[in-house]
Amino acid sequence: MSLSPYGRLPVPRLTPALLSLVKTGEIFSLGIDFQEGMLTPGAAMKSYSIAPHLRHGDETTIDPGTAAAETIRMSIHVGTHIDALCHIAEKQDAAGNPASDGEPRLYNGAGTTLPARECVTSAGQAHMSIEKMPPIVTRGLLLDVAAYKGVEMLPPAYGIGADDIRGTLNKQGSEIGENTAVLVRTGTYRLLRDGDPLYRDAQTGLNLEAAQYLVEQGMTLVGADNMAVEAMPPMDHSVHRFLLVHNGITHVENLNLDELAAAACYEFLLIITPLKLTGATGSWVNPIAIA
Length: 291
Description:
Layout: H1 16-19, E1 27-29, E2 49-54, E3 69-73, E4 81-83, E5 90-92, E6 103-107, E7 113-115, E8 120-121, E9 124-125, E10 136-144, H2 145-148, E11 159-160, H3 162-172, E12 180-185, H4 189-193, H5 198-201, E13 205-206, H6 208-216, E14 219-224, H7 238-247, E15 250-253, H8 258-262, E16 267-272, E17 282-284, E18 288-290
Parallel strand pairs: 10-12, 11-13, 12-14, 14-15
Antiparallel strand pairs: 1-18, 2-3, 4-15, 4-17, 5-6, 6-7, 8-9, 10-16, 16-18
Helix pairs in contact: 3-6, 6-7
């Protein structure tokens, strides 16, 4: 199967170099459990809800077998998910500068954008939507920033800077390098697990300087154990805009990185397979790290 490039993601190929990352074969699931009432980015995003519509014993055509099935309702950007490159646009003036009164524009290749209004139909997004994203098979690198700072959890709304990234790399003896997915641990996953709204309202994550540094080092995908990868507030999505709109680098959000961190597993083979949801701005995922 031929796969076209999608932003900065490498075309998936299981190479000897990637296979060499597997040392013990231990597998870590990095997704969270989806649950009723789980936190969302805001009222516009619908939380997970499940409703059985077929129960064992209901009349079916498979007698004497029985079946059960359910309907699930939830916004895409809830729980562990990956952003499509059409998820975030940036309002720009005619010169391509950010402008509140400008036209929303989407990533369209290195150094280019196109008007977002041209890319949506009644069937959803028509440009860089999630069904166009290939399977992700790449080198993964955990950056346990909380451990570097000597805390179980970074403070609310803390902006992780480039110095924090460099310090974490030095402490772990890690290097980023080309075609690396960087997963940032803040320690705030426990707030999501406990349903604490602080997880949503005072997000600890990357600042713009850190995102820029990671791209310079060769990062092609970023993930974090928070809701937006970046620190919030402010709410201007500066890191989203820099990565998604200007660099074609997507996000994986709401990860559970605690088991990886407990095992001091910093380098691994990372596999993520987005669902083929035609026209969607993202997909729920359960990323797998193989140590």
